[in-house]
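We close this part of the discussion by returning to an individual protein. The encoding preserves chain order, so positions in sequence and tokens coincide. The sequence in question and its structure tokens are set out directly beneath this paragraph:

===
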Amino acid sequence: MCSFIARIVAVLLLLTLSAHAQSLANIPSAYVPEANYKRLNCGELLQERARAEYDLAGLYAQLQGYRSRYLVDFLALGLPLATIGGNTVAAETLVEHDISHSKGEFEAITRVLIRKSCGI
């Protein structure tokens, strides 16, 4: 019976955390001016785009790590969400900001690639 209740609590916690946290698609991109990239040639633009994509993947993995730690802390330590959230939520917010900026970079580079007919 106790095991069943623990599973129910874990599922509810996962649902709560996934509702709290934004998915990558729901994090809006920040405005990044295309002027930052207009001077680059097609090869350089493609390298910058790959870098931005790599940065996004790393940041998203970091965000997922924070979210996973919520569950581990709750199940392993029995801490309520209110006590484990402080620093982790602040760090998660910073990562979301970085994701927003990287998405903006990626979109700006893509627009310049299209305008220069670089073939992406």
In short: DSSP finds three helices and no strands in the chain.
